[in-house]
Write a structure and sequence with these properties.
It contains nine helices and five strands; from the N terminus they run ααββββααααβααα. Among the domains are: 2-35, no CATH class; 66-158, Band 7 domain (Tetrahydropterin Synthase, Chain A); 223-279, no CATH class. It is an alpha+beta fold. The longest helix has 61 residues, at 160-220. Helix 4 (98-114) packs across helix 6 (126-141) and helix 8 (224-243) crosses helix 9 (259-288). Plays a role in the regulation of glomerular permeability, acting probably as a linker between the plasma membrane and the cytoskeleton. Residues 275-302 are annotated as: Disordered. This is Podocin. One of its GO terms (biological process) is mitochondrion organization.
Length: 302
Amino acid sequence: MLRTLCRAGGAVFKNSQQTVPRLWVTPAQQRWASRLPMNTVVLFVPQQEAWVVERMGRFHRILEPSAVSLDNVTLQIDGVLFLRILDPFKASYGVEDPEYAVTQLAQTTMRSELGKLTLDKVFRERESLNSNIVHSINQASDEWGIRCLRYEIKDIQVPPRVKESMQMQVEAERRKRATVLESEGTREAGINIAEGEAQAVLAKAEAKSKAIRLLSDALAEQNGNAAASLSVAEQYVSAFSNLAKESNTVLLPSNTGDISGMVTQAMTIYSTLAKQRPKVERMKTKTDEPSEEPPVQSTAAQ
């Protein structure tokens, strides 16, 4: 209908006397309306394929599926283009079909920009990719009186196998992080356990040292030896009473009923050890003192 009105300028509807007003359209719009077929069919080229288009048996062009990244991954990009016509005269007479020209320019620019990036960078550098496409379009569309305001990538589709490999890569990265975190947790737990055990051993050693120091101070006081002798005698009797419970144990001395004799023997042993202790300390002191006698030189027999 638009094509008929553009050509006639004014016409009469069939079976009607009403006159159709004249439509003021540009020559570019007339050419676009005259070229647009009424039976338009839209077909999509599948992945990993290319279609050869022939018209009346003659080669016309090749339809490729989509763009290819730097690492040879086929991509399908769905973008949104925002345009503004600044000069209607240039848009009408500077190019035959400005909308088609800008769309084709955006597609070719997008393919060239994607060819410079790998698949990972395409997802990360979407903003820079959009700005580069807008800059390239504006350089060519200034002569057409058209300004590209924005270009936004709406969707990025990859082949199914590439998508599966990307999913596997993400899962492997997640497992790696989980393993690293688990190993770090095990390491920190081991360090904490070792530090706790070391602190426990140190605390036990300090407590034992303090107990020995207190015992030494107690023995140094008046009647300290008598108290120590009594404590040793009690431990002696307790040890023998525990040994007497076993049927296959021989006790020396065999007379376990003489408790007073056992106590006397234990106190005698302690007194003997107490008397020998100063002698041992004096011998150690003499041994540690340097000798003033000159060394004796031995001569070999001739």
